[in-house]
């Protein structure tokens, strides 16, 4: 399921960044948090190191078997997702026995978010795995009444792994260690020593992150902060339906999404109520294990919400919180097993059917988006090859990344992210465009709902000819150089 259609769609923007960075730079540049990497991406460098190694080892072998470049490169994410399934089954079995483990595995195997991340060449499937590993190591520490150093070592390594996956990992690690420190006094001395070791292991990347954070706040463009508490329930909503079944961008989208919202939150409520019964009626050891899942599923996300009020771009995407996905799915699985044990098998069966209905709808929609991608960079590249322009001026500059993978017919000139007002002002900013005596194409990329605002940036209606427009959020315009007097004068 995680491999099905993995190579159908072209690289998206972030995937193109990972691919080009791993392809074009040396290992020492990819490894260092102080390198050019952090000029555009503040994440720890483990993901890019893995991309660099994968691109030079497994990718050629996979492509030799007939896989496309996209499928071969993305397959490392699928591998991480496979190990996440195994870890989740172990955690579910630890809490609720064999049935709990098997149901956890089944729910996660069909989970839309998990499948989506398994086919995305970014760090988020690795973040999901790292969150599951931290959860598993915390379960071992929780059931250890002697405070064994071997379990502490496992906790340190899983925490380090999570912190190297994404900068939000430190929030999950802080939450996990806080829980163990509060609940178990005999662990406190080991945790202090472990924290010092972990600080030393992470210091190199942490100082790199602080350096880049200071650099960005000093001179970068203004960012986006989540300050609304609605981000929390919709994070858990996305944990069930993924990011493809319901795309809520405007208030009007809420009404069309309402049936899915009601269905998903009904399902989640049934699962969480079952977990609540588990906490009240099952043996103490199992109850404490489930408390770990409750803590890791909710506390870090609430801390991320609070932190986003102060830290720039801390909670920009649901994917940043995906380390909580496995604990959250386990809460639902354990709740459904509990309902079945308490002579409510019909309720449990209905809830499971609800879950798989939503999951199949999510996966079906995901498959359709792969067959008919929102933006096909290969199609845009083929069309540009037909036009044979002298140059392609691109707004916004980030769109240069995926296009440069599939198109090399003319120079790609990124435009600054500022209001142009007119084509003349654009030429002043990028004078190299007027050196060409043939047609110039302006590629305008925009979120679909902001199309009119983006068109106003260039006074487009007056002197640019609209070209093919079926590229979703990318539009192409032609500037015929030979017919423009001011180019002749220049």
List the helices and strands and how they pair.
Elements: H1 13-24, H2 27-31, H3 46-56, H4 58-64, H5 69-109, H6 112-118, H7 124-143, H8 149-165, H9 169-183, H10 188-219, H11 231-241, H12 251-281, H13 284-307, H14 325-341, H15 345-371, H16 377-387, E1 391-395, H17 400-406, E2 412-414, H18 423-429, E3 440-445, H19 451-456, H20 460-463, E4 465-466, E5 474-479, H21 485-489
Parallel strand pairs: 1-2, 1-3
Antiparallel strand pairs: 3-5, 4-5
Distance between the termini: 58 Å
In the predicted model, the low-confidence regions spanning at least 5 consecutive residues are: 216-227, 483-490
Instruction: Specify the oligomeric state.
Output: single chain
How does the helix and strand content classify structurally? mainly alpha
Strand content: under 5%
Structural Rg:
25 Å
**Main pleated-sheet profile:** 5 strands, mixed
Q: Major sheet: order of its strands?
A: 2-1-3-5-4
Q: What number of structural domains do the residues give?
A: 2
Topology pattern, helix = H, strand = E:
HHHHHHHHHHHHHHHHEHEHEHHEEH
DSSP strand count: 5
Helicity, in percent? 55-70%
